[in-house]
Structure formats: C-alpha cells, structure tokens
Amino acid sequence: MMKHAYDVYSDRCPTRQVLTRIADKWALLILDLLRAGPHRFSALHRRIHGISHKVLSQTLKKLERDGLVSRTAFPTVPVTVEYALTPLGTSLTGAVSAVAHWAESNMDAVAEAQRDYDARQDSGG
Amino acid sequence: MMKHAYDVYSDRCPTRQVLTRIADKWALLILDLLRAGPHRFSALHRRIHGISHKVLSQTLKKLERDGLVSRTAFPTVPVTVEYALTPLGTSLTGAVSAVAHWAESNMDAVAEAQRDYDARQDSGG
DNA sequence: CCGTATCCGCGAGGATACTG
DNA sequence: CAGTATCCTCGCGGATACGG
Known about the structure:
The structure is a homodimer. In chain A, 59% of the residues lie in helices and 11% in strands. Chain A is mainly α. The longest helix of chain A has 19 residues. Chains A and B meet through α1, α2, α5 and α6 of A and α1, α2, α5 and α6 of B. The structure holds a DNA duplex.
C-alpha cells in the first residue's frame, strides 16, 4: 500500500530538495530551539553560536517558505519579529531534536571510536 | 540534573562537529539505507542517486571513524567490501530515518506552503 | 531591531583517471 | 569492485554596510 510516490533516494524527486534543506546543521538547531517556544531573531542569533546574521536570515526564510516556521512582525519601533513553529514544523521537531541530542548523548562513544580509528591508522592497520 | 556537559549550541563544543557530520544529506541517506542490512559500496552508490564516487567514499570513511558504520573487506577477487551499522550507528537510525521519511510524508504540505508563500510575494504581501 | 545586498574567500564535492 | 589522488568549479556562508 503506497502512501506516496515520493522517493528521497531519487535525484529528481522534490523530496530531495526538502531533505537538503532540513538535513542542515543550522536548520536543525533553529527547529530544535523553537521547540521551546517563539523566539525573536536576535534571540536565535545569540543562542546559536557561530551562525552569521545573513545565514540565519536565509535559513529562516527557507523554513518559512517550506511552511515549517511562521514569522510574525509586531509594529513596534524598532520592529519586533517572532519566529515560531507551525504545526507542520512541529511534526518534524521530534526527529530533529533526537538527532541534535544524539550528538550530545553519544559524544563520548564517538570520541572513543575516533581514537581507536586513528590508533589503527598509526599502527598501519 | 545534567547528564552531560556538552552543548551543541556552542561553537567550541566537539558535539558541533559531530552534528555537522550527521546533519548531512548524504550521511542521512547512507545511514537510512544501512538500516535494511549491510550493503556493498557499489550497492550504496547505485541506490543513492546523485552521490559521486568520491563523496560516498569520504562520507563512509567519516562515519566509520565516528564509529557509526563498520567496514568489512572479504578477500575475494576483486575485493568485496560490506558496510554495516554498528550498535552506535543503530542508535541514531531511528531519528535519521524519521527525518528522511518526513520529507516524503509531508512533501504535499511543503509544496502547498511554498505555493502560498510565493503567491504572497507576487501580490506584494 | 530586523533584513537584505554586495563582495569574496574557501572548501565541499563532481569528473576523471589510475592503483590494487 | 573498491579506493585514492588530482584538478577545478561553484555556491555556501562569513564580513560588512546600508535600508526600513
């Protein structure tokens, strides 16, 4: 029973573009952050260490276009903007956060694997 | 109660490197494929449409170094090589597959969101 | 505060060819 | 079949500056 005809393994399938967008360091971190609630642009920028102004803006725009994130501007002065998850975006955050958290939870095991691997290389393994 | 001192939001934290590696289109597809069982190099190459020989090789090497994937060479002629998930790798595939599958399951909603967004741009929204 | 435009360096990654 | 090396391009993404 086919639920959909999409195939992310295919070069031509539009799902590949979507995957490219969400299989991205910055997008993952943004989506994970928004899980806790709406955030302002500057708040996201402050929390996500290392992302540039421009790339944060670009990434948010793409996520908004894909319907994962909503953007709300309040007519204050200067303008206040809030980004939040849409229901569609929320449906992805479980998986996204799991990936992000995995890195933290398994860092020790990864580091050990790297040491083993490198040692094997040194000894001509 | 802190379970670990790692913070993926920090630029300097080693988890950021790990995230960078797994938050990657090709790595996600490889890990998802290996979920079904061991695969040979050429099989992976055939299934993952659009990946180059070189990048597949590089990505596998990194995943192997991080302890997510194991590499087994059989002394046939020509040599046969099998890639498989390690237990560590298996612990990540749930989240990884969820992300990959999400793209397929929600493609229609994403496409609709894109149409809406683009229409709003055209009408000077 | 938020966003976009411009410039530009750098490295990911594709094509190709060669080794084992 | 599996893997590496070389070359080269192309666009991501950082810095900066300016507009709203």
